[in-house]
Amino acid sequence: MAPQNLLAFVNSCFDFYRPLRLRLSLIFLECFLFFIAFSSGLSKVHCLYSLVSYVHGTSSIPLLPLTVSQCLDSTVERWPDREAVVFLQDGIRKNFAQFQQDVDKVAAGLLALGMSRGDRLGVWGPNTYEWILFQFASAKAGIILVSLNPAYQAKEVHFTLKQVQCKAVVCPTRFKTQHFCDMLREICPEIDTSPVGMIKSSRLPDLRMVIVTDSRQPGMLHVEDVIQAGESRHHKELMDLQNKLSFDDAINIQFTSGTTGSPKGATLSHHNIVNNAYFAGLRPQVRICVPVPMYHCFGSVLGGMNMAVHGVTLVFPATGYNSQANLEAIQNEKYGTLCNIVYGTPTMFTDMLVFEASSSAWCCVLGLMGGSPCPPEIVRKMITDMNMKETTLLYGTTENSPLTFLGFPKDNEELKLNTVGCIMNHTEAKVVDPNTGEIVPLGTPGELLIRGSCVMHGYWDDPEKTSQAICEARWYRTGDTASLNSLGYCRIEGRMKDMIIRGGENIYPAEIEQFLYTHPKVQEVQVVGVKDERLGEQVCACIRLKEGQTSSTEEIRAFCKGQISHFKIPHYVFFVDSYPLTASGKIKKNILQERMEKKLGL
After folding, report:
1. Alpha-carbon dihedral of residues 65, 71, 74, 76, nearest 10 degrees?
2. Contacts 24+ apart (CB under 8 A), 519-525
3. pLDDT at position 516
4. What's the pLDDT score for residue 264?
5. How confident is the model over 400-437, as pLDDT tens digits?
6. pLDDT of 559-595, one tens digit each?
7. Domain 268-495 maps to which CATH number in 3.65.10.10, 3.40.50.2000, 3.40.50.12780, 2.30.170.40?
8. Its Gene Ontology molecular function terms (predicted)?
9. Are 539 and 511 in contact (CB under 8 A)?
10. pLDDT of 193 above 50
11. Distance CA 90, CA 381 (A)
12. How far is CA 336 from CA 85, 92, 98, 160, 292, in A?
C-alpha cells in the first residue's frame, strides 16, 4: 500500500469516531507512519503534519447537496406526525406535516405579494412561531432572510434594512419595551399614507411592505393576509421554483457588528447552514429546549435547521428569555415528552443554576453551550448540580454558519472544562503567528483561521470588509487567539480584537465609542469589557470630558437609552483625565481594562 493511501486508510478506519481522525499525532501512529514514510521515500512532512497547529475534519460522509426546503421535505416524508415545534407560552404545537403546510402557504403568499427569488425579507422580533415559519417560507421561495436583533433601535434597524435593500419586514407590534411598528413609522412615515403592500419611502426606497404578526395595523399587512394571498397558480409557481434553486444561493444575512462601528451582513448559503446543522449531528428522538434567540445562528441553524435536517423537536419555553420557563420546559411532564437536550449561553446556564433543584429532577442529559467563553466552574456545576453528564461546549462565529469546533458528550473532564472540542467534518483550522502568518507549533497560541464549507459567501455588498476577513485562499480570520493540542482539540485563549461578549451578545467598543462621541460634553471615550460573574463581561466606558464640563453615570446611560441596543449601554462609566499610551501614542486598551477591573475590585 502506498504511504499516501495508508494515511487515508488510517483516517477511514477511525471515521466512526471523529476525534480519532485527528489523532495521527498520537505517538504510536507517528512512529509507525514515520517508519513507513522513510522506508518508502515519503517526505517527513506528510507524516508529522500534526506537529503543527493545523487540523482537518476528514469524513467518509459527503456534504449534502441540498437546499433548506429539500431537507424539510425529506424529513416530512419520514416523520409527518412527529412534533416539529412547540411554543409553550403561545400554546402552539405543530407536527412536521402541519408545519410544512404552513410554510407552503406563506411562501406562496410572499410570491403572490410580489416578492421574488433573491429579494430580502427582514424578520425583527423575539422567538415566536412566525419567526421560524418565515425562516423556512422565505427559503422555499428563494427569498433571503435577514435576521434582525429585536433589541435594535430605530437608527440601527434603518441602517441594516437600507444596507441589504430589504423589500419586506416581518415583526410584532411590540415586545416588552420595544415598539417595532412605531419605530418603523418613525423611519418611514409614508407607511400610513401608502396603499398596503406598496410603501414608497424616501429613507428606505426598497421597502414595500411591513407584515405584522399580532394585531392589525394601518398601512401594514397581517400574516393572515400573506397566507390568503397565495392562490393555486402561486403554489404551482412555488413548486416550479424548487427545481431552479441552487444550494449555493444566499439564503440568510446575519448582522454582526464591526470594529468600525457599522454592522456587517454575513451572507450564508443553503450549503453553509444545511451542512453545518447536518454534521453537528444529533441522536434520534431528541427534544431540544431552545431558549437561545432565533435571530442568532445558535437558534436558527443549530435549532431551526437541526429540526429540518434531523427531524428533532424544538421546544421554545418563552417568547423572551426566562430562566424559570426554561426549567419548566425541561422538567414539567404536563408539556408532554420531556426535553433531553438544552441549548444555552453561559449566562443562561448560570441563571438556571441559581434555582435550587435536586439533580435527580433533571431529565436533560446534555447541555450544549456556546455564545461566549464559559468559566470552567459553570461547566462543572452543570455536570454535578444539574446532572447534565454529557455537557458539551462549542465554538463558532456567525461568519462560519456558525459551528467549527464541537466537543463530545463522552469527553473527559479536562477537555470539557478547558477546550471547545475538535474540528467539524469538512472543515480546516490553523493557528498562525499574527505577525508573520506562519503556522505555529502545537500548543502555541496564535490567531485562529477557518476554511471549509462553513465559511460565509462574504459580507453583503461590502467587498472591502470581506477581503479583510477572508484571504484569497478562503481562510476566514476569526480574530480570536487560540491553541490546538495534540488531540486536535481547541482552546480559546482570548480575542485579538476588542470585542466584548456580554451574555452571548457580541459588542464592539468602536460602535459605542462613536455614538458617545455625539454627546456634547464628551471629548474622548474608550470602551472596554470588564469581567462579570453572570454575564461574562460588562461594558465599561472611560470618558474624558470637555474642559469645564461635568457629567454622571446616570446622564450618560440616559443619553444612550432608546438610541442604541440596551445591551450596548455602558454598565460602568468612569470619568478620566487621560489614557495609558504606547510610545507611538496609541491607547493601551489592555492596561485600561486592567485599571478599571482593579478599580471595581474584579
Report:
1. 180
2. 519/556, 519/559, 521/545, 521/546, 521/549, 521/550, 521/551, 522/546, 523/547, 524/579
3. 93
4. 93
5. 999 999 999 889 999 998 899 999 999 999 999 988 99
6. 999 999 999 999 999 999 999 975 445 678 889 999 9
7. 3.40.50.12780
8. medium-chain fatty acid-CoA ligase activity
9. no
10. yes
11. 32
12. 13, 13, 18, 40, 21
Overall average pLDDT of the 335-363 stretch: 72
Angle at 473 between CA 64 and CA 277, to 5 degrees: 25
Provide DSSP, 134-187: HHHHHHHTTPEEEEE-TT--HHHHHHHHHHTT-SEEEE-S-BTTB-HHHHHHHH
SS3 546: coil
pLDDT at 545 > cutoff 50: yes
Given this model, what pLDDT does residue 49 score? 52
Rg (CA), the chain: 25
Q: Which residues, listed in sequence order, are joined to residue 146 by a DSSP beta bridge?
A: 122, 253
DSSP-derived pairing of the beta strands 403-406 and 427-432: unpaired
> Residues 428, 451: contact at Cβ < 8 Å?
yes
Helix pair 323-331, 346-354: axis angle to 10 deg = 80
446/477 Cα distance (integer angstroms) = 11
Q: How far apart are CA 390 and CA 213, in angstroms?
A: 38
Taking the C-alpha atoms of residue 278 and residue 39, their distance in angstroms, rounded to an integer, is 41
**Of the candidates 531, 445, 456, the residue with the CA atom closest to the CA atom of residue 495:** 445
Instruction: Report which DSSP code applies to 258.
Output: -
| One CATH from 3.40.50.2300, 1.20.1080.10, 3.30.300.30, 3.40.50.12160 for 500-600 | 3.30.300.30
* Strand-pair partners of 493: none
Residue whose C-alpha cell reads 459527503 in the numeric block: 62
Residue 504 CB-half CA count within 13 A = 23
| Four-residue CA torsion sign, 260, 263, 269, 272 | positive
For the whole model, what pTM was predicted? 0.81
Question: pLDDT digit string (tens) for 126-160?
Answer: 999 999 999 999 999 999 999 999 989 999 999 99
C-alpha cell belonging to residue 502: 456580554
The DSSP output letter for 224 is H
Cell of 486: 495534540
One of 3.30.70.20, 3.90.1310.10, 3.30.470.20, 3.40.50.12780 is the CATH number of 68-83+93-245, namely 3.40.50.12780
List phi, psi (to 5°) of 545.
-80, 160
- Residue matched to cell numbers 426598497: 206
* Angle of CA points 201, 146, 286, to nearest 5°: 150
Nine-digit cell at 385? 448540580
